[in-house]
Amino acid sequence: MAESLTQSAEGAAEISHGRRFLAWWLGISVVATPLVAIFLGPAIPPGHGSVEAAGQVVDNTVLVAVSTPVCAFVLVLLVYSLTVFRNRTGALEDGAPIRGNNRIQVLWVAITSATVLSLAAFGSYELVNDGAGGGQGPSAAFTPAGYQKALDVQVIGQQWEFTYRYPAAGGVETSELVLPENTLVRLHVTSLDAIHSFWAYELGVKADANPGVDNVAYVTTKGPLTFHVRCAELCGLWHGYMEDVGHVVSPSDYASWLDRQKTLDAPIMKYLPPYATTYLPDPQQRAG
Amino acid sequence: MTGDVALARPRSGWSRLIGFNLLTAVVLGIAGYYLGWFVGHHVTGPSVDYFGDIDQNDISVALGYLLGVVGFLVGLGFANYPFARLRGYPPSLREKESEGVGRYFGLCTDHKVVGMQYLCGIGLFFFIGGLNAMLIRFELLRPGMQAFPAGQYLTLVGIHGSMMMGMMTSGILGPFANYLVPLMIGARRMAFPRIEALTFWLLMAAGAILTTTIFFGGFPTGWTGYQPLMDQANAGMDSYIVFFALVGVSMSLLGLNMLATIVTMRAPGLTWSRLPIFCWGVVSTAILMLLAAPVLVAVLSMGLLDRTAQTTFFVVQGGGSPYLYENLFWVFGHPEVYILALPGFAIVLEIIPVFARKPLWGYRLAVAGLLGVSLLSWLVWQHHIFFSGINSNLRPFYMFSTELISIPTGFTFICGLMTLWRGNIRYSVPLLFCLAWFFNFLIGGLSGVFLSDVPSDTTTHGSFFSMAHFHYTIMGGLVFTFFAAIYYWVPKMTGFQLNERLGKIHFWTMFITFNSTFAPLFAIGFLDQPRRAVSYAPSLQFLNDWASVSAFCLGISMLLFLYNFVYSLAFARIPAGANPWGSRSLEFQLPSPVPVHNFDRIPVIAGDIYDYGTPAPAPTAVPAPAGGAS
Amino acid sequence: MRDGPIYPRAVTTGRKLTGVAAAIALAGVLIGFYIANYLVGNTPAFRATPVAAKQKTVDLVIQTVAAVGPQLAPTHPDWVSYLVRNAQGRWERSTVFTVPADALVRVTIYNYDGASGLRNPYLGQPRGLVGPELVDGKPVAAFSPDQPSHTFAIPDLGVLVPIAPVSDKGEDGPNACGYAPCTMAQAHRTIQFTFRSGKKGHYRWQCFVPCAAGFEYGFGGPMQTVGYMDGYVNVV
After folding, report:
1. I need a surface site. Which of A20, B21, C36, C181 has the fewest CB within 10 A?
2. Contact criterion met (CB < 8 Å) for C121 and A238
3. Would you state the pLDDT for residue B277?
4. What ipTM does the predicted assembly reach?
5. Distance CA B216, CA B226 (A)
6. pTM for the whole thing?
C-alpha cells in the first residue's frame, strides 16, 4: 500500500512536471510565434524588390515562425531540467530510472516528421510556383506564368567582371545591368572560364555561372530599384571585388538606355560573336 | 600469444635518437621530397614546354610530396614489419610499446599511445587553423583594407578551411575512439594496430604538407577546390591536393579499423543492445569514413591529372565538365560533414547519463537517429549545388531529403533532453560543454533548415549565412563536444585531473565569445555579403568588427584552455583516481592511466552501463570464469 | 612496472617552467614567421609623377613585357608583367599606383608582348577615357578580338584599355625583347590614354586578356598575382 502511494506520488510528480513544462512551452510559443511572424518575418531580407524576392520573404517568414516553437521546446526543456532537476545535496545520488516512454517517442517522431514534411511541401510549393529566383539550368522546370514572353537577358561571368547581353536589342553587350520595371525577365547566366555565381541581392536572384552551361533564372521586376550584384562563388583573385550595381527603370528609360548602349558599342559590334546561350572560347590561349 | 612485449635496453645519450623515429622520418621525408622533385623534373622533358612558361612544375611538386610521405613513413618504421614478414619472421602485433616518452614520437601500436598522439597532433593543427581564422578576421576588420597581399587572403581562407576539415574529421575518432573503443568493448587492442598508427602519421604528414603551401604560392580555391579554378592555380594547389588525398586515405583506414574492431572484438556479453552509445556513434561515423573518403581521393586524383598530365576531366572545351567535380566532391563532402557531426551526437549522449545519473532515455531511438543520419547523409549532397544549373526537377527531392535528415537529428535532441529530465544533474565541465551543444546545434540545425529550403537558399547560398550555419554545427557541435571529451576522458588517459575552475572559466568564455562571433554572421549573410570575399559594403562594418573582436576573444579562450591543460598535467599533477565521475562505463572500471595491456583478463559484460537509478544494478562487467578467455 | 612516462633525470618545477617558456618562445617565433610569410609579396606602392605645369595631372609610364626576368622576379622569371618607370628612369615591378583624387592621369604604355587575344570580344573597345586611346600616335576605336596583348582595366572606374600587340615579326625577330626591362630600341608599341581618377578610394585593376601562357584559361599565375598583371589604383 505504501509502495503504491509512493509510486502514485512519484507518478503525480511526473505528471505535474510534464504539465508545467507543457504550460511553459505552449505559453512561450503562443506569444512568441505571432510576434516573430508579424514583426521579424517581413523584415527578413531580401526584401520586396521583385516578385520572387517577395515570395522568398514569405518563405522565410514561415520558416522562422515554425522554428520558434521548436526553439522554445528545446530551450524550455533544457532550462527546466537544469534548474528543477539539479543535484542540491552534493552527494552522488541517482536520478529516476526511466529508460524511455513509448508514447513520447512516437509523438516526437510523428510531430517532427509532420513538421518537416510540411515545411518541405511549402518550400516546394514556393519553388514550383515561379522558380524562386534561382538558377535552374538550361531547361527550367519551374516557370512563372507567362514565361514564354519573358525578356531574355544574358549574364556573362568572366574573371572578374559580369557583362550582360541583350539579344532582343541585337546582341548588344554592356557592363551594366538595367532592366525594365514590371517585366518578367529570363536571365541566361553563363561563364567563360571559372565558376562564378550571379547574385542580384534585392531581386532575390542567384544563379551559378558555369562554363558551357546556360543557367536560366526567372525574375519578375516590380518598381524602380537600384540593386547590387555580387559574385557568390569563389572564382579567383578578385572574387571579392566582382560586383556591380544594377537598375530597374521605367520602360522608356530602359529603351533610351539601350539605344545609348548601342551607339556606344558601335565600334565593337562587328567583333562580338553572335548571341548564343553558351560560349566556348579556347581554354589555352596562345602564349604571348 | 607470444610474449612479445619486450623491454628495450635503455640507451644513453644521443644514440637514443638513432633508429626508426620521428627524426629519421623527417630526414627521410625531406630526402624523399628532393628525390621526387628530381624525378619529376626529368620526367617532364623539353616537349612539355609549358612548364617553362609557368615557372612551376606540378609533376615535380606532387611527386616530391608523395615520395616525401613515403620517406616519412619508412623513416618511422612502417616498412619494417612488411619486410620482416617477407623475410619469414613470425607475425607480431606489437611494436615499441613500452619505451617511455619516446614511444609517442614514433610508430607505436598501443592504441592508447595513438590516441594521445592524435590528441596532441590534432590539437597542434587545430591551433594552426585557428591562427588562420584570426588572420582572416583581422583582414575583415575594414572593408577596403588589404592587410595581406591580395591573393594571400584566399590562401588564408583555404588553409583555415582545409586544415579544420581535414583534421577535425578525425577530431573525435582519432584521439577518443582510438583510446576508448577497445576499453569500452573489453578488448586489448584495435583490430589493426599498425594501420591505426599509420592513420595518425599520414594525418601528420598531410598537415605538414598543407602548411608548406605558402612556399609554392598558396591556393585560391578555398577548401572545396572547385574546378576549373583549381586547374589555373599555382603550385600551392598541389599541396592542397596531396594534403586532402592523404587525409582521405587516413580517414578511410580509420573507419575500417573502427568497424572491424567493434564488429569482431566485443567482449562476451556485449551484445549490440548493450553497446555504449559512443561506440554506436563511432560505427555510424566509420561507415561514412570508409565509404566517402575514397571518393575524395578519386576526385582529387582526377584534379591532379588535369593539372599535370593535361587531361580535361573538368574542362568543358575538352569534353569534361565542372559539374563532375562539384558532384563527386559533394558526394564525399556531405557525408564528410556528418562525419564531423555524428561523433558530437554520440559524445553528448554518452556523457549526459553519467552527470544526470539516469539511464540514457530512448536508447533504441538514439541508435536509430545515429544510423538514420548516417544513411540519409548519402542522399542529400545536391543541396550544396542547388543553383549550379542542375536539373531543376531534382531540387524538390533534395530539399525533401535534406529536411528529412533533421528528423533523426531530432532523435538525439529528445533522447539527450529526456535523459536530463528527472535526473540528478551535477554540473561539471564536461556536462557544460554537452549542454552548450544543445544550444549551438539547435541554432545550427535550424539554420540548416533555412538553407535546405530552396527559395530561402537563393539568398543565403554562398553567403555568410551558410558560413554561420556550418560554424554553429561544426564548431558549436563538434568542437564543443571535443572539449567535453577532453575534460571527461583526459583524467582517465593521463591519470591527472584538469582544473575544474579553470575549465568552467574556459567554458563560459568560449561559449559566450563563440556565439558572439558567429551569431552576427547570420545577419551579415542575409545582408548581401558573400563568403570568401575580402571586401564588403561599408554598412556592414559594425557587424564585421563585432565578429572579429569576438573571434579574437575566442582565440584567447582557447589559450586559456591550453594553460589549463599544461598547468594541470605538467605542474599541478593531482591524481584523478580510476573513476572521477562515478561512471558505470567499462573504461572507468580500469585504473588511470590505463595499463598497457588494458585488462588483466577479458571481462564478461554483465550489465548495462546506463543502469543508473536502480537500487542494485548488475555490475557492468564481471571477471571471466577461470579457464575462460584471457 | 610503471606505465607512465619515464623521465631520464629528475624534472623539477624549474625545469618544467623553462620548458614551457621555451615552447612559448618557439611558438611565438613560428607564428611570427608564418604571418610574415603571408605579408611578403606586398608590392610597394608607386606614386604617379605629377606634371609640373598642369594642376592635378599626373603621369604614369608603364611597360608590359612577355617575360619579366630573374632580376625583377627571381621566383617567376618567365611570367608576363607590368613594370612602371620611376622618377630616376628605372623600371620597377610595382602594380600599386597612387594617384591624387579627381586628377587627370596620363598613361603611356610601352608594350613588348605579342597578341594573345580576348576571350570576350566586348572588352576590345576602350572605355572610360578622356579622349581616345592612341596607338603609336593614331586613335583606335576598337580592336578585333585576336589583337589585344593585354588590357589595363579599372572596372570600378569604368576604365578599359586594350593594349595593341607587337606584330608576330617583331615578336620573333632579332629585335624582340627577351627578359625585362626592355629598351626603346626593341620592338614595341606605344599606347597612350588619359583617364580621370574619381573619388578617393582603393580600386583594383586587372588585365582581361588570358595572357598567362601555359595556365588553364590563361588566367593563372601572373594573371592572379598582384605585382604582375593585377594591382591597385589608390586614389588619395
Report:
1. C36
2. no
3. 96
4. 0.91
5. 19
6. 0.92
Q: Containing domain of residue B422, as a range? A: 93-622
Q: Which residue has the higher pLDDT, C55 or B622?
A: B622
Do residues A251 and A224 both lie within one domain? yes
Nearest to A119 by CA among B457, B449, B377: B449
Q: What is the mean pLDDT of residues B477-485?
A: 96
pLDDT in tens, B111-161: 999 999 999 999 999 999 999 999 999 999 988 767 787 788 999 999 999
Distance from CA of A270 to the nearest CA of B (A): 25
Provide the pLDDT confidence category of residue A13 given band limits of 50, 70 and 90: low
Question: Domain containing B392 — which CATH number?
Answer: 1.20.210.10
Range of the domain at C63: 45-235
Same domain, A28 and A79: yes
- For position B8, what pLDDT does the model report? 53
Q: Are residues B481 and B518 in the same domain?
A: yes
Give the number of domains in chain B: 2
The reply to whether C150 and C137 lie within a common domain is yes
Per the structure, the count of domains in chain A is 2
Tell me, yes or no, if A284 comes closer than 8 A to chain C by beta carbon. Answer: yes
What cell numbers appear for B613 in the block?
537509478
> Is residue B127 domain-shared with residue B73, that is, in the same domain?
no
Residue B124 within any structural domain of the chain: yes
pLDDT band at C214 (very low <50, low <70, confident <90, very high): confident
Mean pLDDT of B242-257: 97
Total of domains in chain C:
2
B617 touches chain C (CB under 8 A): no
Please determine, for residue B275, whether its predicted confidence score (pLDDT) is greater than 70: yes
Contact B399 A210 (CB under 8 A): no
Interface contact A272-C122, CB threshold 8 A = yes
C221 CB within 8 Å of a chain B CB: yes
**Residue A275 domain flag:** no
Q: Which residues contact B518 (CB under 8 A, 6 or more apart)?
A: B468, B471, B472, B475, B476, B547
- Closest to B95 (Cα-Cα) out of B85, C4, B106: B106
- The answer to the question of residue A91 being in a domain is no
Q: Tell me: pLDDT of B550 over 60.
A: yes
Closest residue of chain C to B12, computed from CA coordinates: C8
Is there a contact between A286 and C117 if contact means CB atoms under 8 Å apart?
yes
Residues of B with Cβ-Cβ distance to C217 under 8 angstroms: 228, 231-232
- The DSSP code for A153 is E
What's the pLDDT at C126?
A: 93
Pairing of strands C96-99, C230-235: parallel
> Residue C27: helix, strand or coil by DSSP?
helix
Residues of C whose CB is below 8 A from A236: 219, 224
Query: For residue A90, is it within any domain?
Result: no
Residue finishing a domain among B59, B92, B125: B92
Using pLDDT thresholds of 50, 70 and 90, give the confidence band for residue B628.
very low
Q: Is residue B372 part of a domain?
A: yes
The percentage of chain C sitting over the pLDDT mark of 90, rounded to a whole number, equals 27
**Average pLDDT score over residue span B400-414:** 94
Residue C233 near residue C157, CB atoms below 8 Å: yes
Chain A residue numbers with beta carbons less than 8 Å from the beta carbon of C145 are 271
Residue B11 counted as domain residue: no
The Cα A113–Cα B410 span in angstroms is 10
Q: Which of A280-284, C201-205, C225-229 has the lowest mean pLDDT?
A: A280-284
Report the C-alpha gap between C133 and C136 in whole angstroms. Answer: 10
What is the residue range of A32's domain?
8-84+103-133
Task: Report the C-alpha gap between B315 and A211 in whole angstroms.
Answer: 9
Residue ending a domain, among B40, B69, B92, is B92
**Within a domain: residue A274?**
no
Q: Which residues of C touch A158 (CB under 8 A)?
A: 119-120, 208
Q: Provide, as residue numbers in chain A, all residues whose Cβ is less than 8 Å from the Cβ of C142.
A: 267-268, 271
CB pair distance less than 8 Å for B392 and A140:
yes
Higher pLDDT, A247 or B21: A247
- B586 and B513, same structural domain? yes
